[in-house]
Design goal:
The protein starts with a strand and ends with a strand. With 218 residues, it is an alpha+beta fold.
């Protein structure tokens, strides 16, 4: 079957405003995205932040499409927060920065939490694994970003990894933008501290000797 795909804003710039996708019967909105990302690979890192719409109505990624449907892929709208959420794919820090940066902002602060190869007790770490209560975690991240945006009049984006994170990989990225550096710094610090206290996510460290240790916190 043929469906008509539409992209907007940064997604359009990375792919095309409109195109046709030849999909098998019973394909979902997620299948349509996968086909589009196969054609335009630069789209792939944006998947955690995109909403889908079918025939001008919001739908879930599992929504089944029919021949002739129009499926639209929508990036986040502008406002007090940029991209927020969880992802099991590598975090695109550049996309986060682009989601918050504006000409009115004189300061852009980026914090990147990376997986390191040494635990606090000195043991060698080979990889990390993050497990989250996803529906609640996504809501909490959005709340934290909104609180920081309101308190410091900043624009905030935050994404946290789930699943396996190799040593050197990005586990969490926070970007804050504001007219002045003090507000951008304070908003960024607030977000990471709030994540450590409130986010329902757990970290498992895998050590070189084969043992594991699971603990709360980012």
């Amino acid at each position: 079957m043929l469906v008509h795909a539409r992209c907007f804003a940064i997604l359009r710039e990375l792919s095309a405003a409109r195109c046709e996708l030849d999909l098998p019967d019973g394909a979902s909105a997620d299948d349509a995205w996968s086909a589009l990302a196969a054609r335009f690979p630069a789209l792939a890192p944006h998947r955690p932040f995109v909403r889908a719409a079918r025939n001008a109505a919001d739908v879930g990624w599992d929504a089944v499409l029919a021949d002739g449907d129009e499926v639209a892929f929508l990036p986040p709208v502008s406002g007090g927060t940029g991209l927020t959420g969880l992802t099991d794919a590598p975090i695109d820090v550049t996309s986060l920065e682009q989601s918050v940066a504006a000409d009115t902002d004189g300061a852009l602060v980026t914090f990147v939490g990376r997986a390191r190869n040494r635990a606090d007790d000195g043991r060698d770490v080979v990889e990390l694994e993050y497990e989250a209560f996803a529906p609640m975690a996504e809501s909490v991240l959005a709340e934290i970003a909104a609180e920081a945006a309101d308190r410091w009049q900043a624009t905030v984006a935050v994404v946290h990894r789930t699943g396996l994170v190799r040593i050197g990989g990005v586990a969490v990225a926070i970007v804050t933008a504001a007219p002045h550096r003090a507000e951008a710094y304070e908003a960024n610090r607030f977000v990471i501290e709030a994540i450590k206290e409130r986010l329902p996510i757990w970290k498992r460290e895998r050590f070189a000797d084969g043992t594991e240790w699971k603990r709360p916190g980012a």
